[in-house]
Amino acid sequence: MPSHPAGAQGEPAPPLFTWEFAADPYPAYAWLREHAPVHRTRLPSGVEAWLVTRYADARQALADARLSKNPAHHEEPEHAKGKTGIPGERKAELMTHLLNIDPPDHTRLRRLVSKAFTPRRVAAFAPRVQELTDRLIDGFAERGEADLIHEFAFPLPIYAICDLLGVPADDQDDFRDWAGMMIRHGGGPRGGVARSVKKMRGYLVELIHRKRETLGAAGDDDLISGLIRASDHGEHLTEGEAAAMAFILLFAGFETTVNLIGNGTFALLTHPEQRALLQRSLAEEGEDSPLLDTAVEELLRFDGPVEMATWRFATEPLRLGGRDIERGDPVLVVLAAADRDPERFDRPDTLDLTRRDNPHLGYGHGIHYCLGAPLARLEGRAALVTLLRRLPDLQLAAAPEELRWRGGLIMRGLRTLPVRFAPAAVTSSGDVRSVP
After folding, report:
1. Can you give the pLDDT at residue 234?
2. Do the beta carbons of residue 420 and residue 314 sit within 8 Å?
């Protein structure tokens, strides 16, 4: 069971990792920030780890070279048993990716991957993201109701990252099934996730083989082909490294975007004055509205898609937030707690889409800052703008307290997001008109 520290007056901490905690972890994180900002606890998996909850400590930990991303530095056997890291990645030989390595290997791999995953490539992908966004909304616009997680927020990033990687259209539904298994079981039994990871790895290795053989042919401008071509001082990604990188781009890329869209839409629907402010700005200034940029960043801060940064392990004894961390100890930086720290953010529990002083940690900090953040922002922006434009009277179809959040450590997201709106008929141009 998780341990519960006591405050200065001996009051017990709120329980962690319950279903009630998953629905709203912020009061518990506020207690930890005040009374036990670096706190050792037993996680539901049985692993003991340190939780870092204050903003200043979080930034320090995210950039501290003594906190390794390589699970080999964890002296306990939990990582070998699949209790830390991504389920199934070790057995599937997918460990050699940016979330599991340190410099100099991290530096080499990130430089190679950055050659293929460029801002220009992401920007050029914007029309395809918009096309996918409209097509998915077309699928439910006439009904007047939908589950925005399963019908919109989930499929959009899956199909987008498959297109970007170069997964053939005929195979993309398989990826959707595998990704669905990861989301459904991410906070519970890990066997289903591991099986999906194994299937995904087998497919990616085969796809890389095929693309290597046809490199240079027409239409090979996808990301996997770019990973194969990427070189630096004569070095290339090995086939195993390319498979691991394609895997982590898909695994880390899709769920963060699912949650950005889901959590962001939920936040807007439960803060109608902020939603109305954004809609007015979009109506007056279109997608060039400066409010749109600050809105996306505030949604990432207020209830972001990543609750905790991925695992870190101390390579030597260190002191953090007044606590002594021993060599081999796992450390989890709680981004959700750091981004509500009143020592850094004014009125941190208030959603303010106009907030400008907003150096949130939603996509990390330091050398492990999320490589896919520009793509996630592009997809999240397109999704939110298009929902507000096409379904302007969108509203929740259930009480907020009735919605369930997925359990788990790293990601934070809703299981479902039922909504209703005035039914709209889809025109040939993809626009909609209200049905009388």
Report:
1. 65
2. no
Binned at pLDDT 50, 70 and 90, residue 75 comes out as: low
| For helices 155-165 and 172-185, angle between their N-to-C axes, nearest 10 degrees | 130
Query: What are the Cα distances from residue 396, in Å, to 22, 147, 270, 271, 422?
Result: 20, 10, 8, 11, 13
Query: What's the helix, strand, coil split of the chain in %, to 5?
Result: 50, 10, 40
SS3 191: helix
Quickly state the pLDDT bin for 266 (edges 50, 70, 90).
very high
Q: Long-range contacts of range 272-279, CB-CB < 8 Å, 24 or more positions apart?
A: 274/351, 274/352, 274/353, 275/388, 277/353, 277/354, 278/353, 278/388, 279/388, 279/392
Q: 165 and 250 in contact (C-beta within 8 Å)?
A: yes
DSSP for 199-250 reads HHHHHHHHHHHHHHHTTTSTT--SHHHHHHH-EETTEE--HHHHHHHHHHHH
- CA 196 to chain centroid, in Å, comes to 18
Half-sphere exposure of 90 (CA within 13 A, CB side): 15
pLDDT of residue 82: 47
* Cα 270 to Cα 399: distance, rounded to the nearest angstrom: 10
Residue 204 and residue 95 in contact, taking contact as beta carbons nearer than 8 Å: no
Q: What integer is the mean pLDDT of 163-175?
A: 89
Mean pLDDT of 361-386: 91
Does position 433 have pLDDT exceeding 50, yes or no? no
Q: Which residues pair with 184 in a beta bridge?
A: none
pLDDT given at position 366? 87
Note if the bond before 189 is cis, omega within 30 degrees: no
Burial of 231 (0-12, 13-18, 19+ CB in 10 A): exposed
Side chain identity at 292, as an amino acid letter? L
Segment among 242-251, 371-380, 415-424 with least mean pLDDT: 242-251
Q: Tell me the Cα Rg of the chain.
A: 22
Q: Report whether 72 contacts 355 (CB < 8 A).
A: no
